[in-house]
Structures are given as C-alpha cells and as structure tokens.
Amino acid sequence: MTEWPTSFLGRLPIAQTDIKGTARGFVAHALGSRGKNLRPFVSTSANGQVLALCGKDEAFLSLMRKADQIHADGMPMVLYSKLFSKRPLAERVATTDLVHEVAKAAEDTGVSFYFLGASEEVNAKAVEEMQKLYPNLVFAGRRNGYFSREEEDEVIAGVNAARPDILWVGLGVPLEQQFIDRNIDKLRGVGIIKTSGGLFDFISGKNSRAPAWMQAAGLEWLYRIWLEPRRLAMRYLTTNPQAIGALIRHSG
Length: 252
Fold this sequence. Notes:
single chain, alpha/beta, six-stranded parallel sheet, two-stranded antiparallel ribbon, 12 helices, 52% helix
C-alpha cells in the first residue's frame, strides 16, 4: 500500500489522502496480496467519538495507532486541519462514501468483498443493495455481527474459507478495533481489513445520510441526533466537546 503522508490530529496520524486515491490503493494492495499469506493491511477511521475515546482511554488509543492507515471520517477534523494544521487534509474520507468508490474499482478487477457485522437482516440487505448497484461486484461472503467471543474462531474460519480480498468489519467502536487486534494474525490471506462502524445500516437503508450541504458543513452529527435523539443526543453532547479539546491540545 502507498505510504501516505499524515497530519497529526487529536493524538492520531491521519492519512492525507482522498476517497479516489484510497480506493485505488485498496484495490492495488488487495490484488498484490493474493496468495502471499501476508498480514492484512488495516484501515480504520476517526471521528469525534474516536477522538474523545483516544483522549481518555490509552488502551483504545494504542489500538487505533496499530492500524496501518487512519482516515478522517469527520468533517470537523478536515475543517480544523485547514484552519490550523501545517498539513491540511484534502477531504473527508467517509466509509459510507469510500465503500462505493472501492466497489466501482473492484467491479473492474474482480476484487472481492466480505461484509461482517450488523444484524442478519441488515447485513443481508446491505449485500443485496450493493449487488444491485454493482452487478459485477464479487461477494466472497457475509456474516452478521451477533456472535460471542467463544464463537470468534468459527467466524474467522468462515472468513478464511471465503478468502475475501477486502473484509469490511462493522461491529462499532471500539468492538471492531478489539476484534481485529485479537484476530489479525489469524486472517492471513485477507488483503485489507476496513473498520466500518454503522456502514451496513446506511447501505441497507435502515439509516439515512444527511443532506449533502449538512455533510459539507460538518453537521451530519446534528442530522443523526434529529433521527435518533434518545440514542445519540447525550453521546454527541459529551463527545463533541471532548473531541474539540483533543484537536486543540494534541494536533500539529
């Protein structure tokens, strides 16, 4: 994978890349990794929730720093970098946008996907919707995210049997980072692992994206609060100030 320059934001090295460049990198690395039994390349993302957790949880910060690549999946991070960083970010690399750009490139190259996470209904629907949008996209497999620690070996065996080029893990923060850390060395043969948060909820249509103008203004979090006030209001009210504080104190 291309070694992207980084910007240091909120205690994390954030890749200075864009969506199209990332997608090209994913496909090239996946193809180049086939049959080599290499350790997977791990790509993850940071937003306000992640920055807040990194500011108060050293163990989680360590997990994030183990990733080979960290994207800015939060527009406030991009805006902050443009105003105050010596190395401003080009754009937000939202996983909900990235998956489509990677799928387009994968259709032309035969690079395969595996979706791991969400409920059985949501996971199946997400795969169905992706195959409608990208008829030539190869799905090596899929599996819902409802499994216990005791069942992880079985889950890993299923992924390895499918041998996907790109494994999208949507278990939520911090469970997906912890899952990858426990199992990274058992997943040799997978080219890339991408943490995905609530990606499958959006692809399946369970959750909707904010209007483009709200995304561009960094207000997608406000739209999500409007949709799910009981679940998200308190989380954003607490994590947003913590994230802003982390950006101010630990960026360069």
